[in-house]
Amino acid sequence: MPRAGSRLEDAFGKTELELRAERAACLARIARALEARLALLTRLRDEAEKAAGEARIAIRARYEDARREAELYRWALKVQRGANGLHDDRLVDRMYPIPRLR
Known about the structure:
Blueprint: H1 4-50, H2 53-83, H3 90-95
Helix pairs in contact: 1-2
């Protein structure tokens, strides 16, 4: 007959695994959202370089809106990492640089 303590330990272990999986999934969702915004920024930057006049101004305005959103997602990723004990934000900054307009 199994001991009550071992059943409790098993339940705790399963719960811990579920929590770790959810934490990893949350980090992955934020990272994917950030990657999508960074790809948009790269595209808008490239379009702005080819455009002129009013079109360039409009694209640059869209770029600035998208940049603010990307920075928010990058911040959210840093916060989520910190909540999981990963406190070195330099890795995030290196992995997910914000493309700059030229």
